[in-house]
Design goal:
The model has no long low-confidence stretch (mean pLDDT about 95). By secondary structure, the chain is α+β, with helices and mostly antiparallel strands. The chain is built from five helices and 13 strands. The chain is about 15% helix and about 35% strand. Strand 11 and strand 12 form a beta hairpin. The strands form two sheets. The chain has a seven-stranded antiparallel beta sheet with strand order 3-4-5-6-7-8-9. The protein is globular.
């Protein structure tokens, strides 16, 4: 997962709205969102290479997502797969919290992990070893720190805020359109994350399109006041064409 925009307590019907893009190399085999078999029973996509995922929900309506951090540091080829953190965060009676992540985070290459504890969302940054509680409002998470002011982060956050504030009814197609913005940022506004100017340019838009690497899927999650969740996903070919559109409803019992 490479960019997420989150709205907390900013819509009268949906206290949590998440829109997210997963960016990855196109040859990397992936299974789109589905309910995993027991004992996980989570709703998530599946990275068929390493066996983890980038974003998911469990049967209790809890949410977790992962982004890599582009730190300029050398990647450890022997590190554990970061994709295993999301299923662990969503597991029943999981003991994943700030202390666990601080103790075990160095086993993985740098990451941000969004995880839920006691009805609150937190973002753990493995480089800073900090957990930040997401306050009511709008948030952007990409490949640096939470709420960095990268051009595409600011643009998507502002677009989501405008859409929600001006419309009582949420148009799912318009949420997807926010995540399909291919506008590149000017060089003078690009971050320096240690990957070189050509890659910074390529990765500067919300939706990334290139022959070998790009946006593979978009996820949209709407959590109702009663805890029910509407989840939508659409995948993309390497030329940006939409395929394999899916939708799910998670109904909370009781």
């Amino acid at each position: 997962m490479c960019i997420l925009f989150i709205a907390i307590d900013r819509h009268p019907e949906f206290p949590l709205i998440v829109v997210a893009n997963r960016d990855e190399f196109h040859p990397r085999l992936t299974k789109s969102a589905h309910f995993w078999p027991q004992p996980n029973s989570i709703l998530a996509g599946l990275d068929l290479q390493a066996g983890g995922t980038w974003l998911g929900l469990n049967q209790d309506g809890e949410f977790s997502a992962l982004t890599n951090i582009r730190s300029g540091l050398n990647q450890n080829p022997d590190a554990k797969s970061r994709g295993e953190l999301v299923p662990f965060a969503l597991a029943k009676n999981s003991n994943l919290d700030h202390d666990w992540l601080t103790l075990h985070g160095d086993n993985y290459n740098p990451f941000n992990l969004i995880f839920q504890k006691q009805n609150s969302l937190f973002c753990y940054n493995s480089i800073d070893r900090t957990s930040t509680k997401l306050s009511p409002g709008f948030h952007a998470i990409c490949n640096g720190s939470l709420d960095d002011v990268w051009p595409k982060m600011a643009k998507g956050e502002q677009a989501l805020e405008k859409l929600i504030s001006q419309n009582k009814t949420i148009d799912i197609a318009r949420l997807f359109s926010i995540m399909q913005d291919r506008t590149a940022a000017p060089d003078e506004l690009l971050p320096n994350t240690g990957i070189g100017i050509e890659w910074e340019r390529k990765l500067s838009s919300i939706f990334i399109q290139s022959k070998d690497y790009g946006t593979r899927s978009t996820s949209v999650m709407l959590k109702h006041n009663n805890g029910d969740i509407d989840f939508y996903e659409q995948s993309y070919t390497n030329d940006g064409a939409i395929f394999n559109e899916k939708s799910f409803e998670l109904t909370q019992k009781g």
